[in-house]
From TrEMBL:
Lineage of producing organism: Bacteria, Pseudomonadati, Pseudomonadota, Gammaproteobacteria, Pseudomonadales
Descriptive protein name: Thymidylate kinase
Similarity-based family: Belongs to the thymidylate kinase family.
Gene3D superfamilies hit by this protein: P-loop containing nucleotide triphosphate hydrolases
Classification via InterPro entries: P-loop_NTPase, Thymidylate_kin-like_dom, Thymidylate_kinase
GO BP term, example: dTDP biosynthetic process
Molecular function terms, GO-annotated: ATP binding; dTMP kinase activity
Record organism: Marinobacter fuscus
Catalytic activity: dTMP + ATP = dTDP + ADP
Residue ranges annotated for the Thymidylate kinase-like domain, each copy included: 54-242
The encoding gene: tmk
Binding site for ATP: 56-63
Recorded GO CC terms: cytosol
A UniProt-annotated Pfam family: Thymidylate_kin
CDD domains with a match to the protein in the record: TMPK
The EC number(s) this enzyme carries: 2.7.4.9
């Protein structure tokens, strides 16, 4: 898992000395975490799973590629979970329903932002971190990069506000790798429309998604070590091959760099 140098009081990842700590949550898996106190678990980084997120605008093929990624990891014999944001736990899925539903009351951008991070706090601490601590890889459909793209670039929330909440909720936890499925907005929207009824986000104008796409591409340029751009406008088989090859290469990396 990628880590910055500012661990919060309740959660820290110490890569250099090879241990991993997180807030409580149940842990399962091949290595039993060492309990330091009631709030913290530690395990060797040898067992730590990798945190891989799939990002992109609507309909580019994230869910499709998560299925493909799951099959790839199965072939490689790697233990993993597949999850998504907003959502991933029963409570966070309830928040997702609130966020995606179209209603009469317009949602203020700060309400949207706080609900995203409320769902994320539950998901991260109750599901993602315990899975990583047990050595499983976490394949996640969207994470905080989506917040920078949608609430930041799309809604116009200043980046510093998002960064504040990111630090509060995640401390130094960041995805190890972001697989950015990139395609023209119109391509993704045409695919999403074919799938059926559109949710509150999917009803946004093309200009909104253009800002979102640009923001993802800017983040990919700013963080080339973390981002992997895949051309999602290609035929499905080619996109799947690229994603499988990428995951196979990541699996071959030593844990500290992978
Ligand atoms: N490379 C591709 N070429 C053509 N169709 C594709 C491709 N990838 C996915 N699709 C199709 O496009 C539709 C949307 O794909 P998918 O649901 O995986 O996108 P998504 O990014 O998860 O969408 P959302 O952002 O709404 O969650 C599906 O019907 C899927 O079969
Ligand atoms: C995590 C996250 C998500 N969103 C938006 C992006 C999508 O429109 C929906 C989720 O729907 P999907 O079918 O699963 O893609 O939520 C967001 O605006 N900000 C976020 O942080």
């Amino acid at each position: 898992m990628a880590a910055t140098n500012s661990p919060g009081p309740w959660l820290s990842i110490r890569k250099r000395c090879g241990s991993f700590s997180s807030t409580g949550g149940k842990t399962t898996g091949r290595l039993r975490p060492r309990i330091r106190n009631r709030q913290t678990v530690e395990i060797s980084s040898v067992a730590r799973g990798r945190f891989i997120t799939f990002e992109g605008t609507e309909g580019v093929g994230k869910s499709t590629q998560l299925d493909n990624a799951a099959k790839t990891l199965e072939r490689l014999g790697i233990g993993f979970i597949v999850t998504r944001e907003p959502g991933g736990t029963p409570l966070a899925e309830q928040i997702r329903e609130l966020l995606l539903a179209s209603g009469d009351e317009s949602v203020h951008e700060l309400t949207e932002l706080l609900l995203m991070f409320a769902a994320r706090a539950q998901h991260l601490h109750r599901k993602i971190l315990p899975a990583l601590a047990s050595g499983q890889w976490v394949l996640c459909d969207r994470f905080t990069d989506a917040t920078y793209a949608y609430q930041g670039a799309g809604r116009g929330v200043p980046e510093e506000r998002i960064a504040l909440l990111e630090t509060l909720v995640q401390a130094d936890v960041r995805p190890d790798h972001v697989i950015l499925l990139d395609a023209p907005v119109a391509t993704g929207m045409a695919r999403a429309r074919k799938r059926g009824e559109l949710d509150r986000f999917e009803l946004e104008a093309q200009a909104f998604f253009q800002k979102v796409r640009n923001a993802y591409l800017e983040r990919a340029t700013a963080m080339p070590e973390r981002y992997h751009i895949v051309n999602a406008s290609l035929p499905l088989e080619q996109v799947s091959e690229s994603v499988s090859a990428l995951l196979t290469a990541l699996a071959a990396l030593p844990v500290e760099s992978g």
